[in-house]
Queue: 2 jobs
Job 1
Amino acid sequence: LVRQPGQAFDDLLLSGLFPDGFRAIYANRDYGRSDPNVCRALHSSHPFEWTWTDYDEEDGPRAVEIMRIFAEFRMPRGFIVPVHGAGGYEAGVAMAGANVDLMVEAKPALHLMALYAFERVRQLVAATPAGKPPLTNREREVLAWSAQGKSAWEIGEILCVANARSTSMPRAPCASSAR
C-alpha cells in the first residue's frame, strides 16, 4: 500500500513471512522509502523479476545497501506483482528467495494468483475488529432511535411503519397485538 508521511512499514504490511531478523532491519532502517524494487513497482503496471545484482552505484548507495541485505538474508532474487486500482498504485505482492527461477509460462498464472491473494488478504484484514465493516443504513437508523431514548419495541414499531410507507406494503405483518 502507498505509504503516507509518518507511517511505519509494519502499518502497511497486510501479510508477510520473512527470514528471522529481516523485517526488523528493513523497518528500523526505513528501507521501504528507498527500496529500488518498491520504486519500480510504483511506476510499473506489469509484474517483474529482480535480482540483487540489478542495482549498482548508479542507483545510489542506499539501493545497493538494501539489495545486499536481501542477498544476505538468502533472498537474492524475487518477483513483484504491482497491484493497481482506480486511483493508481495500491500495493505490491512480492516473493523472494534463493531459488526464484520462474518459467515464462508460469508468470501469468502467478500474476493472477498474486492479485487474488492480495484481495483475499485485504478482505480478511478488513474483517478484523480493528477494521470493522461500516454499519448498514438500518443499523444506523436503529442506533439513532435508541440514542433518542426509544425502547426496542418502539423502534420496531417505528421501523415497520416507515418500511410500510416506503415500500407501500400493507401494515398487517407489522401490526402489533396491542392495537
Job 2
Amino acid sequence: MTILKWILFIQETSPPTLAHALTDRIETLMYLTVCSSTEVGETPTPAIYYANLNTIPIKVYPNPADKRIVNITFQNTGYHKDLNLECYNVHGKLVHSEKLYKYQGESKLNIQEWQSGMYIALVFSKGQILGKAKFLVR
C-alpha cells in the first residue's frame, strides 16, 4: 500500500517525464519483488512436466463423504482421449461409471444409495489407469 501512495505522490508532484520514469521504476521493482518469491527448485524440468501431463491427478471432496454428493476434480483431461471415470467399492464391485469429456474438470456423484465404506475412483484412457483416488463414504 505504501508503494501505491508513493506512485500517486510522484505523479502529482513531479514533472510528467520524471513522474513517468519513477513510476515505471517502482512498478518494475514491485514486479521483481513478486517474481523473486519463486524458487528455482519449484519449477519442473521439461521431462517431469511432460511426464505429469500423462497422468490425471484426481481429488475427491469431501472426504470422508456424507450420504449425499461427492465432488471429484480432474486435471490434464485436455491431453487425453476416451476418458472414463469408474468408482469401485472395497469388494471390487463397480458402483459408478461415466464418460469424461475433454477439458472436463469436475464430476459430482450422487452417493445416497451407496453403502458406507472405502471406495476408489479410477480414470481410464484406452484401458490404462491415468489417475486414482481413494475416498470414504460414511
